[in-house]
Design a protein that fits this description.
Radius of gyration: 27 Å
Length: 297
């Protein structure tokens, strides 16, 4: 294998049933002969596929036996073997999809039933309920900002947002999703000098342009915008449309930073837990003077 192999090349090989079967054989090891293959292939067809597997670095010849390389073993275990297990549980996974859209099931009960389906099937070693929801782990601030913007862009109806950071790109995205009609609940934990109230006041006093002024002015007067302030919020997190969650874990040696952040893309149960936490944090939060004065008029 002289050049790096692409994912497209590997999946092209795996799309062929006979190539998959030869790779399975090589995982256990087979003698260098087409007679080892049980299937409807000519000798030429067998060796053409074997060459493709070798050229891709999936199979190698060692001591008169063909065996998977380290790369080939990983591909076999992570794709072929895993896919075989998943396919045997196809209808169980379909049942999970049906369960996810059932509105007459409480979120915690859905979680329990999904776990039971996984535990009773052959999926225990390859999947858990977190895998079914989809998630990303983020380890640096720039990646976190990109993830927050990506998930915010999915918002249609309602956002809960607790933040102890400020980023202008996130602020711009929040204005954008409000303009699209989403309801915003924001608990601002930034220091006073960079609080959201001060930043909104600065835009109103010296607007960068009329469009931004109009957006901010409309937002602070709207019942769809709920802003409160609380010093020293413990963590930042947001909930999008009751299903998507992004939250951080605090770096206890440097509490102003985070260790990792997690984005969960389809987890109504986790979303509801964080909405409850938002409401708990908001109990002793204060409404900024800006909103109070505007809404008293």
């Amino acid at each position: 294998m002289s050049d790096a192999v692409t994912a497209e090349q590997v999946f092209s090989i795996l799309a062929d049933r006979h190539s998959c079967n030869i790779l399975k054989m090589a995982y256990s090891g087979f003698k260098a002969s087409s007679d080892s293959y049980v299937g409807n292939l000519s000798k030429k067809q067998f060796y053409v596929r074997l060459k493709r597997l070798r050229d891709a670095g999936l199979v190698e010849k060692r001591n008169m036996f063909y065996r998977t390389t380290t790369f080939g073993s990983l591909v076999y275990n992570s794709h072929i073997k895993t896919m075989d297990s998943i396919l045997t549980n196809y209808w169980s996974l379909k049942a999970i999809d049906v369960l996810k859209v059932r509105e007459d099931f409480p979120s915690h009960q859905k979680e329990a039933v999904m776990n039971e389906i996984i535990q009773n099937g052959n999926l225990r070693s390859i999947v858990n309920s977190t895998h079914l929801s989809g998630f990303t782990i983020i380890k640096d601030f720039n990646a976190l900002i990109n993830e927050v913007i990506k998930v915010l862009d999915n918002a249609h109806s309602e956002v809960y947002f607790v933040s102890r950071y400020h980023d202008p790109h996130v602020s711009a995205k929040v204005l954008e999703i409000f303009a699209r009609g989403a309801k915003l609940h924001i608990l601002d934990g930034n220091p006073e000098q960079i609080s959201l109230e001060n930043r909104l006041n600065a835009i109103l006093r010296t607007p960068p342009n009329k469009e931004t002024f109009d957006k901010v002015n409309e937002m602070i007067r709207s019942s769809r915008f709920d802003l409160k302030r609380k010093e020293a919020v413990p963590i930042s997190f947001m909930v999008i449309d009751g299903t998507q969650v992004v939250y951080e874990t605090v770096n206890y040696s440097s509490p102003e930073q985070f260790t990792v952040a997690i984005a969960s893309y389809d987890d109504p149960y986790m979303a509801q837990r964080f909405i409850t936490y938002f409401n708990l944090l908001s109990k002793d939060a204060v409404t900024p003077r800006l909103l109070a004065s505007v809404r008293e008029r």
